[in-house]
Design a protein that fits this description.
The complex is a heterodimer of chains A (about 375) and B (about 70). In chain A, helix 7 packs antiparallel against helix 11. With about 375 residues, chain A is an alpha/beta fold. In chain A, strand 8, helix 6 and strand 9 form a beta-alpha-beta unit. The longest helix of chain A is centred in the middle third of the chain and has 15 residues. Chain A contains 11 helices and 16 strands. Chain A is about 30% helix and about 20% strand. The termini of chain B are far apart. Chain B has about 70 residues and is mostly helical. Classes of the chains: A alpha/beta (about 375), B mainly alpha (about 70). Chains A and B meet through helix 2 and helix 5 of A and helix 2 and helix 3 of B.
Chain lengths: ~375, ~70
């Protein structure tokens, strides 16, 4: 049976069908990425949060990596507002999307500011603006607004709607399937053999795997959301036994906060009802900002997280072993190893070539080759 | 605002045993650090024993229909 939601209760904020007509007055603009956070709060992905963090909550998360009630929480969830923003306690503040549509309302609690350098250093372990998460902090206005969400409009239908499940839905799905042990697999990539190996290793001792690709802002050269979903469909159809794997996407803005974000990813998947989460090498990392296994080491600080991490090393194909291996189980030299480089994959696809079967399943490669734009330009 | 702390009384003999353990094993800065870890682990275990939130039968039916329509069930 899926475990308890984080903090003990699955949050649900009233969802309206479509945005409201904004008539003017005080408001806060939200970016397309922030709109994803609104949905995630509303549907309980970020339970127990019911809105944007107060100064006290933000400070606790920065300093203690916990909410004021001791619940583990590692990434501040903040709403930035223009300097000119003013409201009184309890005021209903409309949140407007980039098109000016009124997509949610917030019960204003307080406005404050946080030293951005300190925030960056605590969350990302760096204040180097070349880190995308740090750059994001510096690009936001310093004023922060806190409050509980009163309602959120449902997102418009998209091609991904049929593969987007809420935590309430996945919890009922897992129960219907009779799954008790569920491993979450977070990904931002089309699956190569290394991913499949991790998933199936985890599946060997669980009832089911929850493949949860993150959709959202990507950098040039990354697989497009369409390619990722199509590739996973092909893989699951051809290589997963029936009733062992579920795929649903998560609309979420990656922070690249490495270890802290690994905990955040675990919390979100706990809310979906998962009991375990696969954490690989450099999970949620970027560049060389974090050690290769730092995102695994941080879990020892959270004995009360309520979701069990499964740690994986980096897998490769070994010609001598004639199969998948990692440095712990394979004695052969590096020259025998085929590593799963994203750049190598991209280059092959861009020249119209399918990668070798040791690298990627032919069915998956075929789907990617057939996708009109498999990479972000 | 950083966390506030309070004092919990434990037998001195237990404290001494924990102190030795902490010094020998490493990984914890102090007895308090160790006790906090263990207590959090135990509390979380008991909290997870509590009855999970039940959904209404209407919720379940509605969601089952959507899951079936989407091919998940």
């Amino acid at each position: 049976m899926p475990g308890q939601p984080h903090g003990g209760k699955l949050v649900h904020i009233r969802q309206e069908h479509g945005p409201k007509q904004f008539q003017g007055g005080i408001s806060i603009p939200v970016t397309a990425d922030s709109a994803k956070t609104l949905q995630n709060i509303a549907e309980g992905v970020l339970s127990p949060l019911t809105g944007y963090m107060t100064e006290d909550e933000c400070r606790h998360v920065m300093d203690e990596r916990r909410l004021p009630d001791d619940t583990p929480w590692t990434i501040p969830i903040l709403l930035h507002a223009p300097d000119s923003f003013k409201a009184g306690s309890g005021d209903e503040v409309p949140l407007l999307d980039p098109e000016g549509s009124w997509v949610a309302s917030l019960a204003f609690e307080e406005a404050y500011s946080v030293d951005r350098k300190e925030l960056a250093t605590k969350v990302f372990k760096t204040h180097d603006p070349s880190h995308p998460g740090v750059a994001n902090i510096y690009s936001q206005p310093p004023r922060i607004v806190a409050g509980r969400l009163l309602w959120v409009s449902k997102p418009p239908e998209s091609v991904f709607t049929p593969v987007t499940l809420s935590p309430k839905e996945t919890r009922i799905l897992f129960k219907e399937k009779g799954w008790r042990e569920i491993v979450a697999f977070q990904t931002r990539n089309a699956p190569h053999i290394g991913h499949e190996y991790v998933q199936k290793t985890a599946l060997a001792f669980a009832d089911g795997i929850f493949i949860n690709p993150v959709l959202g802002k990507k950098k040039a050269g990354d697989f497009t959301d369409e390619a990722i979903v199509a590739a996973y469909r092909a893989l699951m159809k051809a290589y997963y036994p029936a009733n062992t794997a579920v795929m649903s996407v998560l609309n979420y803005e990656m922070q690249y906060a490495g270890p802290r974000e690994a905990i955040h990813h675990a919390i979100m998947r706990k809310n979906f009802g998962c009991t375990h989460i696969a954490i690989g090498r450099d999970h949620a990392g970027v560049g060389n900002f974090y050690g290769p296994y730092e995102a695994q080491e941080i879990f020892k600080d959270f004995p009360d997280l309520g979701i069990t991490p499964l740690f994986f090393r980096e897998f490769f194909y070994c010609n001598k072993c004639q199969g998948m291996a990692n440095e712990k189980i394979c004695p052969h030299p590096v020259s025998e190893r085929l590593t799963f480089s994203g750049t190598k994959l991209r280059n092959m696809f861009q020249s119209g070539q399918a990668p070798p079967k040791e690298f990627m399943r032919p069915e998956v490669a075929e789907v990617i080759l057939r996708t009109e734009k498999p990479f972000v330009e | 605002m950083p966390s506030k702390y309070t004092t919990v009384s434990i037998p001195v003999s237990l404290h001494d045993r924990l102190q030795k353990l902490v010094q020998k094993k490493g990984g914890f800065k102090s007895v308090s650090d160790y006790a906090t870890y263990v207590l959090r682990e135990v509390v979380a275990m008991h909290e997870s024993d509590e009855v999970p939130e039940a959904f209404t039968s209407e919720d379940v039916e509605q969601i089952r229909s959507r899951l079936k329509a989407l091919g998940y069930l």
